[in-house]
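If your schedule permits, I should be very grateful for your opinion on a structural question. Thank you for your consideration; the sequence and its tokens are set out here:

===
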Amino acid sequence: MNEHVLVVEDDPVIQEGTELLLKRAGLQVWAADDGAAAVEIFGQHRFDAVVLDVMLPSLDGLEVCRQIRRVSQVPIVMLSARSETVDVVSGLELGADDYLTKPFHGPELVARVRAALRRARADERPCVVRTHDLEIDSAAFRVLQDGAELTLSATEFRLLLELARNPDRVLTRDVLLERVWGYDYLGDSRLVDMAIKRLRQKLGDDPGCPRYIATVRGVGYRFVSP
């Protein structure tokens, strides 16, 4: 089955080039050149990934990301023409899975989108991990905390599952990038740190006195055994 990608970019040259790259990679591509149109199109069709520019007319990319995350956990790769950390951090805090700064190389964009699609369709080895008050069901892609279901993005789910499968073992950021995001040299440790931050917030975990996820400074993260 062909996978469908929504490209949201208001620069016609970049939009056309991105569409061409992804179509050559065998993907079905839809495009929007402003935020409001992107939200409307997303609500009318099923997409497997979204490539989303930060700076857009009508609604900026951060607001589009926020609205998509209210209804879907589809992988989102954000694009930013600015190098300021605030754009990257804001997008990741809202639930974006990855990002690229402009100008970017075409093969790198394709690699990022392909990695996002692989993660989304990955056939995790079925298991149920029960630890603390959590039940993590990989087959159902569901996490229960004290019987209540948590709303996690696909990345947050895989991150929690990877940590919980390795209790009391320190997993470096590079290892988590490889196992959860599916790449290493293309990655950025901020992806891991921001996903951990979102995951802790949803778990109600205090990083100063962690119940679930402990930070090992300068190394990575460790899931705390009950």
Observations:
- The helical segments are 12-24, 35-44, 61-71, 85-93, 106-121, 154-164, 173-181, 189-203.
- Residues 4-121 form a domain with the Rossmann fold fold (CATH 3.40.50.2300).
